[in-house]
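Predict structure. Chain length: 303.
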Amino acid sequence: MALGLPSVLPPQPAIGELVRAGQTFSFEFFPPKTEQGEKLLWQAIRELESLRPSFVSITYGAGGTTRDTTVAVTERVATETTLLPMAHLTAVNHSVAELRNVVGRLAGVGVRNVLAVRGDPPGDPTGDWVRHPEGVLYAEDLVRLVRESGDFSVGVAAFPYKHPRSADVDSDTEHFIRKCRAGADFAVTQMFFDADDYLRLRDRVAAAGCDTPILAGVMPVTQIRTIERSVQLSGAPFPTALAEQFDRIRDDPEAVRRLGIEQASEMCRRLLDEEVPGIHFITLNRSTATREVWQNLQVGSRV
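Prediction complete.
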């Protein structure tokens, strides 16, 4: 290598290939905004690293607000840990040139796995989505951009209920399949709290002739406010019967937490029995609840 050029690490395994090879399990983190948040993030990463997940992902802030932090955390995971990182990439407020720059930075440290999502508008996630004048309009366009930029394995988002902006389930399924045909190797769902929602998604995608593997996004409910924000977090109403169970113990935070871990564990067991290709745990940069669900799954689990 010529003097003065930065060293480039060899490309890492493609998540799309790992998913098709067998059941995976993985963790999702978000970029910290404060020094204390950074300490909590790296504590969680180090504690969960010992579980040897198939990969980990680092999200993008709403409106692309954490772009540089996302890239920096992904770079550090790639170079300072044994973990396989996947960077989220959103189209909001980014020109094509900016998007290609981010992809180039990731490639420079050997990262070849990207989750391409259109993203939510800054400020109000339910507000009007405005295309950057020099950007892309849809997630499928972002998928093509990443695939054209090099040897990347690209994932996309899937919605067990439906995307909040989709008119109905049928149109939502069509949007998902277009992303897959644009070059997505796999998908990760938004969080959900009823296994049947995932299974219905899988069945309707398969019925439409699409075999892209869909990982199940799971987050244990450890606080009542998670239920109250369910629609905003997942695009789906929280299951009524389950909400009633939590409501009966809402004044007992520890009981809420126990029920949340128990419910997530049971749901994951069913998903594994249904041969889901993988489970993607949304950690909120905490390790304890995720570790407890993971430990509950060890008895008789194939993860």
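Summary: The chain has a mean pLDDT of 88.
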